[in-house]
Amino acid sequence: MTQTVELWVETMTDQETFLRELGERIARLRKEQGLTQTQLGNLVKVTQQVIAEYEAGYRNIPIYRLISLAEALGVSTEELLKPVSAEPKKRGPAPKFQRLVDQVGRLPKSRQQFVVEMLENALQAR
What we know:
Elements: H1 2-32, H2 37-44, H3 48-56, H4 63-73, H5 77-81, H6 96-105, H7 109-125
Helix pairs in contact: 1-3, 2-3
């Protein structure tokens, strides 16, 4: 009996982990597509609340819905279901130089050109 209970607990933990990780992946892909939960729900014909529950890992997702979600998110079902260990690891905070480049990229074009010219001049002076 104890082995059965332990196996059940292990299986539940694995299932909960899987659903949570799948939900996190759905949320990340949805945000990358620039979609709200409501918009994604409309695409797969469910309510915003259902999408929120999928993303939180609170609700099992039927197989036919996984296919609809993958299509709406622009990925294959294989990519949607791949384990977290197969995803590239994040390196942590971006280095200062990368953050600065990102900030320059958000400037108006004329300001970007000014920064580029300053960098070119600094590098030529070396």
